[in-house]
Fold this sequence. Notes:
This is VOC family protein. The chain has a single domain, classed as 2,3-Dihydroxybiphenyl 1,2-Dioxygenase, domain 1, CATH 3.10.180.10. It has 6 helices and 16 strands. Strand 10 and strand 11 form a beta hairpin. The protein is globular and about 50 Å long. The termini are far apart.
Amino acid sequence: MRDEQILGLHHITLCTRSAQEDVDFFVKVLGQRFIKRTLFFDGRIPIYHLYFSDEAGTPGTVMTTFPMLRTGLLGRKGSGQFTAIAYSIPAGSLDFWREHLGRSKVQVAGESERFGEKYIRFVHAGIDFELVEDPTDLRPVWKSEYVPRQYAVRGFHNWTAAVRELEGMEDFLKAAWKFRLTRSDGKFKRYEAVDGGPGKRIDIAHEPDMRQGTWTLGQGIVHHGAFDVADYDAQASVKFDIEGMGYTDFSDRKNRGYFESVYVRTPGGVMFEATKSLGFKMDEDEDSLGSELMIAPELAARYSRDEVLALMQRDDPIHI
């Protein structure tokens, strides 16, 4: 396995509460584009799978959510999960975001500094978010009507995962995922893809006394984090080589409509995914992305469009 086969962060998937709350938060508070609305592929209860990102759904900017309101299932936060999602913001923009979050009535949990980087922490659907000032992140931004361009989020800065046992997780990141340790700060260790930088790093928090979080789908947790691979050969090589190291808790390749995925449960319990992007314009024009409910062919045999629309409008409606 080549060191550069895992290119960086792709998307991260949350179990939230309601679809409308997600739209309001990611679009109106964080200034992201609502790029796709579709359905979760698994299970008997139809629930939304919503996507928010930059203009094009670029890897390293894509947030996806499963609003769990229709199921009533609750998750338990803890170790063996991603526990915080950080976005990059321009240097000097914390004052704007502090005021913007306050006006938006978002629960702010505090401000601090880690790895020499200033950040503000806040909460949505029980899940921790951070905005980190990073002058090196020059990725283009979505032309949001809610957040001025000079303050806009650039994409993911990093994700944080909590583990009770550090050694096995570090071994996996170095030997299997080919990430390198770049910095340490107290209980946090930063690992980055080969070329590093924002959108290519995760932080591991050593939490030996934290209770185990749930792995099932349930409101208030991060379900998994997906990492970008260049092509199917790279994805197959990642799976083959890592299974050869003895990490055999790998799924087969799964078609998720807009990407092809393989999943692995890491030694720390955190669910990783290696993802090949297929793009978001296969079923909608660029200008109309996210405007209609898209039902994948695999799900069309299970649900009629009219049936699903009626259920969602009744139980978890979305108003833009």
